[in-house]
């Protein structure tokens, strides 16, 4: 029997409408009557039309930076308890050893490898951020295509194109439903991520247009993650599962598994079902000219973004004005109300609690001149110098300062004072991390996981991504003992 | 580093609230302020407390009937093109040969086996139906636990308890959000199914209470399926993926993978995010005394339920009044408007189109005395005797007849007439299929897939489920060439 969609479509309606005697009209009327454009088809056509050659230079560059930042956080998170647990749980069911994990020695089939990479790269909440939607774009996409690239050789140019296409797909779909979809409770990285992974893998597999439409449809059928799980291992589960779900969708579609022709835009499709807002133009306008990848940002500090300006200011005063912690009498901060609401812990006891203490943020920046994962460790928050200094931090809610800004004045015991006003913190779209800063972050994350020489080699391969003939080499170079 | 949920919970809020500067209060106010009971914890405690000994006799019996019906449809659908495609796509990534599929020779790891069984058992839309929610209960649950039972021996009593617990879990959660959740566009079998599979597998794995709470949380993070995909292979994908997602959730939770403590009821949890209706009492009231399994129904005919009364009446008149098709002058049907709206095709050309033709339904019942998959084949709709008779079928919309009823009068050329009024069609809750009718359905579905003796043996094992020491034997007895 062949599955012709048109001929079967009523079967469901029949089987479903009858039992509850739900009147189709009644159900329809509950839905907006807006006629949506064929979004899924338009997107699929663009996905298939894109190529490395069509990517603007700045998009290629941001794609490479996104990849390098992602590899760094994937290495850094590779031995977190969350990954250890998932590896132990899934090993007995894994297929052929098709792909490895950064920083680890085990090998898995590509479905499990994609999941585990996604978990590892998000566990520190230190991965990239598309601020327009709060999607962490690289995780779901890179986890899926790097796993695939370890099974079937993929050139650096094709890989970079697939990465950009995947990021574009998930972020544009996210734009169409944000903020309503996110405010409702969905973890948008996990719900939009499968589209990005399916698009990117499907692109590498050379899907036909109908197959790509179905791959997006099967991805739409597998949204992942609710905000209630934030703070548990379940949060990093979401980008991981988004990666494996998108890969699963593409693998099935490639063999002829069918879906609807319009799963993104249909009345009973993804956007209308999962969100109260649907802005189709965010998905279809400017495809190939406007790139969401250019809006991707990288966290310089291992904490929430409201603390970033304070750390930025503290590091500047320490390094540029040569201020010594022991000479500091007082640290005045002018901040937005949200800063104290979210990070008002005055006496954190653990590294994790330190992530919610603007007092610790100011102190650690002035003492160590950094804000990486090490500065949010139990060791750091209990360092006597840090404990002493944070008690001298005085944040004051001040009109005219937004949550992404700070005004810091450090007064020394001898009466001298030093001042910084941060309009845009390092890591923002306006003041992106430099390549050197991304390298420092990568090196810091890899320290203790991979030997320095190996980490440096992997980092260099990331920078030369477009020149690679087989991207699988990056993955192989980044495993434990390589 | 340990992941303490409380200490981390703000991290997400911090990382997430800041970028968009979303005011938490603003977001909260968008949500109902109703204080929900600890639904997830209450449900987990009941799941763990249930045992075969605590199940009422009628619940045990319905559990066995649900299992037998599910095995029949799984065998019947095992060689559908949809399953062939999925098997071909997933074989290269499958793990150890831990489990087989009914009617087939291939073996897979239990994750892939659970998915494929779920697909096979739903492809004909001929599986069981919990009419209160339109959930097809057995697919997601039985697919997961039978795969698991092929890896770790499970007794028939424990398996039956897990099956009932899984059905109870998914149907109660479905009751809490139905109909709003379904009307919005979700395929409720795929969105609630993961809870049932996680509960049932977790039960067999002996999870602790916190682990069960987390398994339900990871299941909540993986809803599957949108109604837009109905009519494509994607529809049967949904119960399959629900089975593997629930299994995946339980496997991870068993090793210590954490989630939230209240993923079902929390403000940013499953029910509040995925539905505009949340009736917590549907989940928590009468646990252990009221069983949704008793509301499970089995389709006697391979088509939507609005055509069932007509087929029922036609079969009765043919068999009990010994009416021969060639003697029939006219067939009058008094029907509900929905019947013509959904099944008004007067001249179907394919078996699938036949599923939307009340004319074909009446004709095939009177000609062949049945309404199985074979009666909805291309052969059946093009049988000259059927084509001739359906042209004599005259349905008339009649007040006082609901969509689950029909009034049929067959008038012969010699003037004699025979009448049946069906208030409750066979297969309804009021007039359930008898064990003999379930056996006939099973035998019909297995014909052409398994040798008659083998099918009979598998069916007998299903009936004796509670006496089995290793339920994996049922699966092994049902594979191709066993």
Which stretches of chain A of 5+ consecutive residues score pLDDT under 50? 1-33
The number of distinct β-strands of chain A equals 8
Largest sheet of chain A: 4 strands, mixed
Query: Overall pLDDT of chain A, averaged?
Result: 92
By CATH, the topology of the largest domain in chain A is 2-methylcitrate dehydratase PrpD
Terminal Cα separation of chain A, in Å?
50 Å
Q: How many individual domains of chain A? A: 2
Corresponding CATH architecture of the largest domain in chain A: Orthogonal Bundle
Strand order of the largest sheet of chain A: 6-5-7-8
CATH evolutionary superfamily of the largest domain in chain A: 2-methylcitrate dehydratase PrpD
GO molecular function (chains A, B): lyase activity
Domain MmgE/PrpD N-terminal (chains A, B): 43-281
Keywords (chains A, B): Signal
Protein name (chains A, B): 2-methylcitrate dehydratase PrpD
